[in-house]
């Protein structure tokens, strides 16, 4: 190759490796503040939405709330003082009224317009307070006598008793030994502190396990039958299985005595710490949509209870029209009016989307509304998204934390979605329907020879449902149906008890 040819080749290689500019068109979704707000509002639960609207009402003076004709209380806004609909005799605002200064005095300029939650406005239902936690309940029972039995220094004694209480789990059981508690509290009096807490109510707290808790309760109630304590300590599994015959044989005790012991144990609480608040807030469900049966069938409607209808104040629109562009008041009101309009549109989009999803669900689940869980059809997010013309992620956000009131109770929207089980008709059936079929087969089986999971799978296949034995076992367990071995054992025990009664 000549020198000229080499130079030309080298130039071509360098050109291909160099930087080049290209212009191309492509579509991309720009997440504007308004779109971000709409997405966030759509994903909010009803409680979150109520708090969010309350915060916006506090922070945006141009927003008005219609509470069925009653405005929420609080400091009067300017349109309430001088507004068009103000009572006769209310003075009109002076011509030189400084709106910018007025709004500054209201400190609206300092309000954050993020997506946080503020204090609920008046008109939102107050939430009931929480009950005491187990820890609070036990701490309230500490007396001077308890402290003196633990340590000579009352303050130090309180710390040791508190350490014991802090070591209890939600059931009221100790999560660490006395030695571990002593090491954590830096004291040797942990045993005395544990004894003190065991004297508190409810009886059975501060026990090492369920057996000790039951014995403590039995003794606190004045029980003194050694057989009861022996059964608790050695045969508690038989108590759970109600196998009085097995206990009678193993301990060599009369059946009536064992049954009386069973009755005494059944009156005790295996989890004495339950029944108290766990410190978390209790949430009360208010449905977003209500489905009711009418003469024409079922219809859905949006539940607007405790949520106001938001509008933009006409008085502030008038004020804005009377200001000039570039003025502080004009810029302020323009910003607030835009924010109010965006919020109203976001709320309407949320309402319409949830309504559309619910009506799409209703069209597929008429049998469920009429007959109950066993007739719930399998349904996916994509199916509903395609039907109402939105993206699958929109449906996913919309059903989060939203509830619908149906003739079958209040149900979370996402509970309607789930993969189905393959069936002969190609449409599939829901897991609830499968469980109902299994319950029906078990109810009709020969109790002396109950159906195994494999036999249940065969019975389901004959009904047009194809499941493996392992999947049948999973659904049977979720339906709280014992295994065939346990069902057979229970049937045998009932037969023996019946024979003994007939023999008597």
Can you characterise this structure?
It is a single chain. The protein is mainly alpha-helical and 504 residues long. Among the domains are: 33-74 and 282-373, no CATH class; 134-266, no CATH class; 431-503, Arc Repressor Mutant, subunit A (Orthogonal Bundle). Helix content is 52%, strand content 6%. The strands form 2 sheets. The chain has a 4-stranded mixed sheet, with helices on one face. A hairpin with a 2-residue loop joins strand 5 (403-406) and strand 6. The chain is flat, with a radius of gyration of 35 Å. The termini are far apart. The relative contact order is 0.09.
Short description:
The chain contains 24 helices and six strands.
* Percentage of residues in strands: 5-15%
Tell me the major beta sheet.
4 strands, mixed
Number of strands: 6
Average pLDDT level:
75
- SSE order: HHHEHHHHHHHHHHHHEEEHHHHHEEHHHH
Low-confidence stretches: 69-129
Helix fraction bin: 40-55%
Q: Could you tell me the radius of gyration in angstroms?
A: 35 Å
Distance between the termini: 118 Å
As laid out across the biggest beta sheet, the strand order is 3-2-5-6
Task: Furnish the topology, listing elements before pairings.
Blueprint (H helix, E strand, L loop, with lengths): L2 H15 L15 H11 L2 H14 L3 E4 L11 H5 L16 H7 L28 H6 L4 H7 L3 H13 L11 H8 L4 H9 L11 H11 L5 H9 L1 H5 L3 H8 L3 H12 L22 E6 L2 E6 L6 E4 L1 H8 L6 H37 L1 H6 L9 H8 L3 H8 L3 E4 L2 E4 L18 H14 L8 H10 L6 H10 L5 H20 L1
Parallel strand pairs: 2-5
Antiparallel strand pairs: 1-4, 2-3, 5-6
Helix pairs in contact: 2-17, 5-17, 7-8, 7-10, 8-9, 8-10, 12-15, 14-15, 16-17, 17-19, 19-20, 21-23, 22-23
């Amino acid at each position: 190759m000549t020198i000229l040819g080499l130079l030309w080749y080298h130039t071509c290689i360098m050109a291909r490796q160099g930087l080049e500019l290209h212009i191309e068109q492509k579509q991309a979704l720009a997440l504007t503040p308004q779109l971000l707000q709409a997405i966030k509002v759509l994903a909010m639960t009803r409680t979150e939405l109520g708090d969010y609207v309350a915060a916006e009402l506090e922070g945006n003076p141009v927003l008005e709330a219609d509470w069925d004709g009653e405005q929420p209380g609080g400091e009067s806004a300017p349109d309430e003082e001088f507004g068009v609909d103000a009572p006769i005799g209310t003075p009109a605002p002076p011509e030189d009224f400084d709106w910018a200064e007025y709004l500054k005095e209201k400190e609206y300029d300092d309000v954050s317009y993020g997506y946080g939650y503020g204090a609920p406005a008046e008109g939102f239902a107050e939430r009931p307070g929480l009950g005491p936690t187990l820890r609070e309940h036990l701490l309230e029972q500490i007396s001077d006598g308890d402290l003196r039995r633990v340590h000579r220094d009352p303050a130090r004694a309180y710390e040791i008793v508190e350490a014991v209480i802090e070591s209890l789990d939600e059931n009221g059981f100790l999560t660490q030994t006395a030695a571990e508690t002593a090491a954590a509290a830096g004291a040797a009096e942990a045993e005395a502190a544990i004894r003190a807490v065991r004297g508190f109510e409810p009886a059975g707290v501060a026990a090492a396990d369920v057996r000790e808790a039951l014995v403590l309760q039995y003794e606190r109630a004045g029980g003194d039958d050694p057989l009861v304590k022996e059964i608790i300590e050695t045969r508690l599994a038989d108590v759970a299985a109600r196998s009085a015959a097995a206990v009678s044989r193993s301990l060599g005790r009369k059946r009536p005595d064992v049954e009386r012991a069973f009755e005494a144990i059944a009156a005790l609480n295996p989890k004495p710490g339950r029944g108290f608040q766990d410190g978390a807030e209790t949430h009360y469900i208010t449905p977003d949509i209500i489905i009711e049966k009418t003469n024409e069938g079922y219809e859905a409607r949006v539940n607007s209870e405790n949520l106001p209808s938001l509008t933009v104040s006409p008085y502030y629109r008038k004020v804005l029209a009377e200001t000039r562009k570039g003025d502080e008041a004009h810029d302020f009101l323009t910003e607030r009016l835009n924010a109010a309009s965006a919020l109203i549109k976001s709320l309407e989009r949320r309402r319409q989307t949830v309504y559309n999803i619910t009506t799409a669900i209703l069209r597929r689940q008429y049998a469920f509304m009429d007959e109950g869980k066993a007739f719930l059809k399998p349904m996916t997010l994509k199916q509903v998204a395609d039907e109402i013309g939105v993206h699958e992620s929109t449906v996913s956000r919309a059903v989060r934390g939203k509830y619908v009131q149906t003739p079958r109770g209040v149900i979370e929207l996402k509970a309607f979605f789930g993969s189905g089980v393959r069936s002969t008709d190609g449409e599939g059936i829901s897991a609830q329907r499968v469980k109902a079929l299994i319950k029906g087969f078990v109810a009709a089986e020969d109790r002396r020879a109950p159906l195994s999971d494999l036999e249940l799978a065969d019975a389901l296949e004959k009904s047009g449902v194809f499941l493996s034995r392992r999947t049948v076992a999973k659904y049977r367990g979720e339906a709280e149906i014992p295994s065939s071995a346990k069902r057979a054992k229970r049937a045998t025990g009932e037969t023996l008890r019946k024979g003994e009664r007939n023999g008597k």
